[in-house]
Amino acid sequence: MRQRDPKELFDRACHGDRPSLARAISYIERGEKQGDEIASFAFRSHRNAYTVGITGAPGAGKSTLTSSIIEVIRGHGEEIGVIAIDPSSPFSGGAILGDRVRMQEHALDPGVYIRSMATRGHLGGLSVAVPEAARLLGAVGFPSVIIETVGVGQVEVEIAREADTTVVVVNPGWGDAVQANKAGLMEIADVFIINKADRPGVRETRRDLEGMLDLSNLGDYRPPIVETVAADKKGCEEAWDAICSHRDYAKRSGLTDKRRSTRTRNELSRILEAMISNKVDLLLKNKGTLEMLDSMDAGTIDPRTLANLLLAAVT
Amino acid sequence: MRQRDPKELFDRACHGDRPSLARAISYIERGEKQGDEIASFAFRSHRNAYTVGITGAPGAGKSTLTSSIIEVIRGHGEEIGVIAIDPSSPFSGGAILGDRVRMQEHALDPGVYIRSMATRGHLGGLSVAVPEAARLLGAVGFPSVIIETVGVGQVEVEIAREADTTVVVVNPGWGDAVQANKAGLMEIADVFIINKADRPGVRETRRDLEGMLDLSNLGDYRPPIVETVAADKKGCEEAWDAICSHRDYAKRSGLTDKRRSTRTRNELSRILEAMISNKVDLLLKNKGTLEMLDSMDAGTIDPRTLANLLLAAVT
């Protein structure tokens, strides 16, 4: 495919052209100029998808759960977009591939759009690229977008917590709920799902979660705990119901607007920092700077004084 | 103690006044203006301490080892500075306190200066404050400074790897060497120490380390592996010998100059990024900006366009 005009690409994607949508997301993922323009068009379209972040420890069954929830959503006749955050860890490659393959049961359904996103040189990384891509999916017409994280890295948790509804997936067994608490997942959960609930220890895990919720400073909303066996498609209708209940509560209470505002402001900070970092990198490669770096090696100018000089040069 | 002039404080510290040295490091730790000035004086003094970074998993016995190595150094009649990086984790508080108490055997020795450093609002954090404090210890006359990390967090490993010599401490037992490899410690080690070498599994751990070294792309220097039982002060003379051999090799081969140059350049980047981040934060609180943020919430301007506008305002 040849290089395309961003406006043309955006328009085609809005008219349902999937190859154009895929290419537009790739531009966003790679942080290319066309991607920036497409992200701006999407933002100004005022068509926002409802976003659901699904997070939890590796192996909790997030992909299987997502796949089963997609089936529930399709059963209601709604279209759905999915972004799978893939931090491209060389270690988890196999597992990711397996999960993606499992999700391929929806590959031929035109009402489902599944996309993996990795860090590919985007300024600000996935924490900027994913919300931009989610916004694009909304702009082209998807009413809802699921953002599924592979692990519980800092960036992934941050992205999941900025969704309209954040789902935390745990498994039965001693300590899993406690681990989720330690990883800071308790405070970001709007809905808890105990997946693989056909295994022993469900009651203890539920008790642990309830206990920790009792200790939390909850307002007028208490995150529900839903049990699923996603591999057998059990409990997924209830899981989606719980998610939609939070969506309705959040809209009614103004929480959705508040979160979207926070999300956009965080995005702005990240974009600014990335742009500035870029400027610093350029500055450090500048010929005049290289000479000053030599003076620093020689001990005649210290890093802080040099930083002030360089900063004065760009600001 | 009243507020002091940075030059006066620096001069007093150089003349052996320990309360002045302590206060100067506190200024550096808190990122105060006086600290910046003191760091500049130290840099321009051209008196560099030889720095040894000691890292390894929590519980490996790094503090006990450091304490025993201090004894060896003192036995040679040399003075020594120690910076213990303490990321102030609420979880490890007890262990840290215990370790610090153990190191107090040197508390009354005027030839030893031990200082814990935590993140206290320094712009750029410990990765800027620790090298600045180490440089100050060099400037006031310590020929060597040990930088001991509490854990193996990203910042701690980064600081340890930027020392003139980096020591990685492991324990005997299946998998400890493999864990060190996974945590990225193999590639940064100039000297390996198998501490608690009176426990079973020393031979296997040594074999694992040798095997991994065989697979590494080593130049003309192969990191030695030293066995210690630091609690019984066994092997610590050999450990210090191995460290000094690396020091001599690094000086001879030009590695020391190269590492110091890299370290200072990294410091410059971190200082620049911190300064710019600061500018961005101020900018976001500006009255004019607040109005633009409202436009962003209303969807009339997107984050990227706004970022460009704001950046144009400060650069």
UniProtKB/TrEMBL annotation, chains A, B:
Highest taxon of the lineage: Bacteria
Record keyword Transmembrane present: no
EC numbers for this chain: 3.6.-.-
MF-aspect GO terms: GTP binding; GTPase activity
Protein keywords: Chaperone, GTP-binding, Hydrolase, Nucleotide-binding
Enzyme class, spelled out: hydrolase
Pfam family, any one: MeaB
InterPro entries noted in UniProt: GTPase/Isobutyryl-CoA_mutase (IPR052040), GTPase_ArgK (IPR005129), P-loop_NTPase (IPR027417)
KW Iron (keyword) present: no
Family: Belongs to the SIMIBI class G3E GTPase family. ArgK/MeaB subfamily.
NCBIfam families hit by this protein: lao
Protein name: Putative GTPase
Biological source species: Acidithrix ferrooxidans
